[in-house]
Amino acid sequence: MSRPTTIIGFGALSIDDIYYVDAQLQAGKGRVVRRASTFGGNVATALVAAARLGGEASFIGWLNEDPDDPIVTALKTEGVCTDDAPLAAGCQPVRSTITVGSDGDRFIAFDDDVLLGTAPDLPDTVLTSAGVLLIDGYATRSPEIVIRARSLGLPVIADIEWSEGETTDLLLEACDHLVLPFGFAHHYTGHKRPQAVLNALWSDQRSAVVLTDGPNGVYLLEADHSPCHLPSHSVSVVDTTGAGDCFHGAYAVALVRGHGVRDCVRFAAAAAALSVTGRGGREALPKSPAVDALLEARDAPDFAAL
Asked: Are 222 and 262 within 8 A, CB to CB?
């Protein structure tokens, strides 16, 4: 019996003030060449990416009860459903200031002293009617929902970039699809080599451990397979903001469509590669035909053993 195809998620919603400068970030000074203010947040942007790729996406985290709230309006405009999201008066987004260097790399500073997570009494029917749950590091505010989702058989894709101690440990243990930045995974496990990091994060409860490493590509470990590496696509990098979020949203789309883990990673890597060719966290999120074309290119990378 096939699973539902709706992708649900809760986590960060943000307003991003982005400053593009004419120097690399390690330089001492640079001139601002462009400013922009956009909507962002790990899970929110991942769900927008999923919707752009033709997936059914639904945000189930806390939202402002004001129906005209711009954050809510932006999600709906992008095709992300909010019908199952709990509401709270005066709910505010994370505020982020992002500096993007001349090489497309970025630094993010944020203020996250806001209501995050989701309602503890979220109905089981919301979880059982979905095909996958997307979470980010702010799922530490509602770990019981993640554990309940897994107990109901819902696959959980974890995008975690920092540790808050035991609660983060609990989340990582519960999730069956760890799709993590290599930098975080390296610091969390204490290992330096990708294969050692993959092995340290593996457990019999996992479906996959995926480590994204920007221009260095992706490292993968799945059940009954040896660790492997997918090189990155060759693209012109303009802005890496939101690339990881795009990867998670695309991975979720491929997963609910019934693809195997390797094909999920291929699809996600191609989508993320296209997302860095334009400015902003959401503006360059691709649609499926563009991703398919990149995957069919003669020079498209393929997996190799580590």
From this structure: yes
Is residue 1 in a domain? no
* CA proximity to 226, closest of 304, 135, 109: 304
Q: Which of 106, 111, 108, 120 is nearest to 92 (CA)?
A: 111
Expressed as residue numbers, the domain containing 258 is 6-305
Angle between helices 194-201 and 182-189 (to 10 degrees): 70
Q: Is 108 left (phi over 0), alpha (psi -120 to 50) or beta?
A: beta
CATH number of the domain bearing residue 123: 3.40.1190.20
Structurally, the chain folds into a number of domains equal to 1
Closest CA to 267 of 293, 241, 242: 293
pLDDT digits (tens, 9 = 90+) for 117-161: 999 999 999 999 999 999 999 999 999 999 999 999 999 999 999
Residue 107 burial by Cβ neighbours in a 10 Å radius (0-12, 13-18, 19+): exposed
100 domain-assigned: yes
Residue 210 within a domain: yes
Q: Which of 40-54, 101-115, 263-277 has the lowest mean pLDDT?
A: 101-115
2 pLDDT higher than 70? no
- pLDDT 10s digits, 71-108: 999 999 999 999 999 999 999 999 989 898 998 888 98
